[in-house]
């Protein structure tokens, strides 16, 4: 559940046995949404959707300490959240290891201190004590107050000479050449930063020499983290592209700047900005390109509007002119807005001209499927993209091309996953392999350079290596990348020397600069013809094969590479004009569109019993709304359910919590949202719906959804991908059909299986909405279902989780689609799709998303919808826990079918984690064991955590199969379900 930010309450209370009367628990909410005081004990409210923040006191980062995924630490004035479990080593500081840590921007406030005196400030420190800036430049100073919970958090900023340096809220502006001191004061404590301002130097010019056919890219560290500190001129000639890491974001949306790191400058004996600029020129003289990298941990840049896109392009171009940078490297690791970032890069390319170089370094997880975010961006900017160097490390084992799993750190991991990118619609000369230079440079996935050479040769020649054989040869594979040049220096530049020697032995590369010569002919008008000389271009069809010719408005075009549906031929790349058509036909926009009405009219109708029997195998009476009504009581009676959730939203115990009153002025009128009756009604109401899904095997993103109302027998097409029925799919991909009867929830298998499913469902939604400890020992039976809305949005008019492009379910202006309900439904495309399934009308929840938090029956329905509905290539949680999923023998996680732990993978991709800990997986598992025990379900021998499991990957050949006789949906396309869920 990557994109959701729901909060989980952790309670600390006196020992409580499961019984009808529950002792009072006093919970004092802080002024922010991230802390609670429970019986005088400070306890964090934990994020669970975007990986839960560990419920621990935030401490300073240390070497030699073990950190779990989700832990938060403080480091040099900032907060960081652990991305993957590891034991810290020297050189793995949070600010310099984006593979292990990400900047945590959530509020970590100081809670009120009921009944105690103010906490006195003991000290203040700045993230920098020395700083060199050119006149006109800005930098941001960050103050850290000790202790963290000091009552006074107000910092006063002053400059010793405002004619040289000014400061406002920590933002320093260099005015004129000279020296000044900036002082930060809180209470009677002070910290200072000595700032030297230099005059602007002569602007070096970018290099206009071409890149070689094979390219080795390396990152030059503008900081000191234990690797060898280098001046730019010391980078060896084996590196063709040098990415300077990293640019700094300013307070202006999208704008970037560059500051030479003071600590690095000092380590290099006083390395100045003028020297750096001169070294850029020297690199050009050696034939090297120097790019400015954006991203990393402390340099994240947010480009989410047209204004931000323009600000980025303007500021980046200014830096290119000032420093002589040849282009930009995109290494954003905190999510990207594809349309606006693509716009920004195109604006910059237009300013910079034909010599502009654009590289990218996405993480493996960002490009492992065709529809992954970075691959979408890469295709959007493929006309200006030079190389995309994927980071093939810090990801754990993953399925490669064809579906087989490969462990990171192996040759098979490199050539199989690289093939996925090579088959993604980009040219091979736009693809490179990124690896750490030495083991210390990454958290995992290091490989000896000899392995990298083996993988490159495997791809270039199309030969087997590491147990994987590419589907074809890719002689134009562009090269390799390493993090970092500085780490490579610690090993005598073994990586650079080994890869360079490999490149010299490989055949020459033919890049896109080799022009395609096309002829043009005059057209002849022939009004009697209804068909053009070449097929009409269709706006809903993808064109995967290059040099495919189409007719569009009297002209013939052909694609240079993969053309996405909707990319008009006359708009430029990847389409090029070939010639005027030999004859033309009467012009009509419908020539280029899909006849939607024909498909819709054939489906939308009331079915006869005979048609239902033929199309759906009939209606199973065991899954009827009437049968669902009494099903819940068989598994758990009302009294036992209420004992499990005494602090559920709207209960009397919940209303009496002081924490509740911090969010709701008068909770007395709020309904019992998670009541037993609401769950019962949700089962009954949703049991009236069947969904039929049809998709193309190997192209699961291309699907359509058909809804059947069991009572009215009305069938309706609720969604169809634009490419469904396209020529390139029909006849080449197998059309699959499967059916999901939502009435089958808690109705499959023997009594024990049905109890396990209920326990599993309640365990996962309890994790999303609550959590608890009792005197240091876990008791997950008390505090589940505490919230029904994302904490940061309670009582707020803020708008969030809105995506205005790339989806058929467009947002309604002024509406927020933040997390609501037991599963925390998020984003407009999920609200729209869920609404289509529940009501046969997407507008119900798109226009009124707040209904999910207002109506407990509807809330439970959204949770059951998610539980029952697969996310390709994932099966549904329902299929897995009941054991009806039928995976291929070599499919991902096939051997874990029937285990609760696999539902965690499906919901939140939390692979390889033990239940013996404090993380999200451990909490889900403890909930499950608690609930199963209370229900009398036998789970002996069942794996409740995710040790040994991997994430699912959408890849041809890696998908499971589902028998037509099983009345449950196998797949629906992930691009409408997976994001935000």
TrEMBL record:
Residues 214-506 form the GH18 domain. One of its GO terms (cellular component) is extracellular region. The keyword Signal applies. Keywords: Carbohydrate metabolism, Disulfide bond, Glycosidase, Hydrolase, Plant defense, Signal. InterPro entries: Big_2, CBM5/12, CBM_sf_5/12, Chitinase_II/V-like_cat, GH, Glyco_hydro18_cat, Glyco_hydro_18_chit_AS, Glyco_hydro_19_cat. The keyword Disulfide bond applies. GO terms for molecular function: carbohydrate binding; chitin binding; chitinase activity. Residues 1-24 form the signal peptide. It comes from the Bacteria. One of its GO terms (biological process) is chitin catabolic process. This is GH18 domain-containing protein.
